[in-house]
Specification:
By secondary structure, the chain is of the alpha+beta class. It contains 11 helices and 25 strands. The strands form 3 sheets. Strands 2, 3, 4, 5, 6, 7, 8, 9, 10, 11, 12 and 13 form a 12-stranded antiparallel sheet that branches. It binds manganese (II) ion (2 copies).
């Protein structure tokens, strides 16, 4: 110890100082003094002012600056909860004529066991090929316009146009396509209710057709084998995304798809941003879209959250599913409490993905000076969240005081409802 203090006197005295002040604070509150002293060196509370926190070696400066709460964690962070941050911006883009896609799934983001996400762009006329897959697909249009087609289980056809702020939902096995419209195509987020879902493993129309014996296909369609010559132009892995002309008027396509003169279904899309938020305070709004308001969304529930600067998506948890998040705008931070004295804080920016395992307590705070907008996504038919405040204010007050030592006055100040975004 003598030797260490001679080599790094500042470091030694700083540690001792932190330990002493930790004892004073903790002694006045709850913890036993020896516990506080043992934890003190981990709590780099003074952050960059603490010489023990200096970082003279190599640094990816851009990444460090995006993650201030990892570089200098809040003193309440402890042990290492699993990484719950990822980002589409770090992922490979599969670029083809007509658009591109990129994905975040459990292969790259091990905590995300229940949900995978895909981000896709289609040019005006660009087509995401007719296909289906083994997971349910929930989607939010982020930019621009697209035309969707599908066929419902009962044989009802579907064709419709969606615009930024609209959702769609295609259940497992329902065949569908997406095509960018004018003036500049579209970009959207796809959410799948399987953590290991991959966009590279969907049933593509063209891929299937060129891997079916031509004589069988000719028999199936009731045509001569020579009619199948054009299929030789299909790439060996199918088309996936390809460029085509912008389609004609929607009304014309609706006419074309009708069965026995019946109207196409409207069941697959939902105008989320035209819906009044279920929760609204001076600090933000929450729109909840689950199967109660959008019956097609049988297995994926969503909340679209806006937190104004200075606001907080309050301390809460979800009883029935993991939460997968997509950050649309702004800057925020989230601490996930992993139980057993384990807590971790990570920062989020537009394009990032977050994850909170089922039942774990968390909050999301706006750390920027613009609105923080994000999606909470769940593999469940119904959205449920439980609010710390709502719980604590609906218990015998003595019981709460006995746990936390807080005064009756403090307990009285706590909002007596699940308000969603605070301060109300
Ligand atoms: Mn799909
Ligand atoms: Mn949540």
């Amino acid at each position: 110890m003598l030797r260490l203090s001679l080599l790094a006197p500042g470091l030694f005295s700083r540690r001792r100082f932190l330990g002493t002040s930790g004892v004073a604070v903790a002694g006045a509150a709850l913890a036993a003094p020896h516990e506080a002293a043992a934890q003190a060196p981990q709590s780099a509370k003074a952050g960059e002012q603490n010489p023990s926190a200096s970082d003279p070696g190599p640094e990816n400066r851009a990444l460090k600056e995006l993650n201030p709460n990892s570089f200098t964690p809040p003193s309440t962070d402890h042990k290492l909860g699993k990484t719950f941050w990822s980002s589409f911006s770090a992922m490979h883009r599969r670029i083809q004529d007509g658009g591109w896609s990129r994905q975040v799934n459990v292969d790259d983001f091990p905590i995300s066991k229940q949900i995978a996400g895909v981000n896709m762009r289609l040019t005006a006329g660009g087509i995401r090929e007719l296909h289906w897959h083994v997971a349910d697909e929930w989607s939010l249009m982020l930019y621009g316009n697209a035309r969707l087609t599908a066929l419902d289980f009962d044989g009802t056809p579907y064709v419709n146009d969606v615009t930024a702020g609209d959702l769609w939902y295609f259940p497992t096995g329902v065949p569908h396509s997406i095509q960018g419209l004018g003036p500049d195509g579209c970009e959207f987020l796809l959410v799948f209710d399987q953590g290991d879902f991959s966009e590279d493993d969907t049933t593509l129309l063209s891929d299937w057709m060129i891997h079916t014996p031509p004589d069988v296909l000719a028999k199936n369609w009731g045509v001569a084998p020579s009619a199948l010559e054009p299929l030789k132009n299909v790439p060996p892995d199918g088309r996936y995304i390809f460029q085509a002309p912008v389609p004609g008027p929607l009304q014309q396509d609706k006419q074309a798809v009708t069965r026995d003169g019946g109207m196409p279904t409207e069941a697959f899309q939902f105008h989320m941003m035209q819906m009044k938020p279920q929760k609204s305070t001076r600090s933000g709004q929450i729109r909840i879209v689950d199967s109660a308001v959008f019956p097609a969304a049988a297995n994926i529930a969503a909340a679209h959250v806006t937190v104004k600067p200075g606001g907080l998506r309050e301390l809460h948890w979800h009883p029935n599913a993991d939460e997968w998040q997509y950050y649309i705008a702004g800057k925020g931070r989230m601490t996930v409490f992993f139980n057993a004295a384990t807590a971790r804080t990570q920062d989020f920016n537009a394009g990032d993905v977050g994850y909170v395992p089922q039942t774990l307590g968390h909050y999301v705070e706006n750390t920027g000076d613009t609105d923080l907008v994000f999606l909470e996504m769940f593999k469940t038919a119904r959205y449920h969240d439980l609010s710390l405040n709502d719980w604590l204010t609906h218990l015998p007050p003595e019981l709460v005081a006995q746990h936390l030592g807080i005064s009756a006055q403090t307990l009285d100040a706590i909002p007596r409802a699940n308000l969603g975004v605070l301060p109300a």
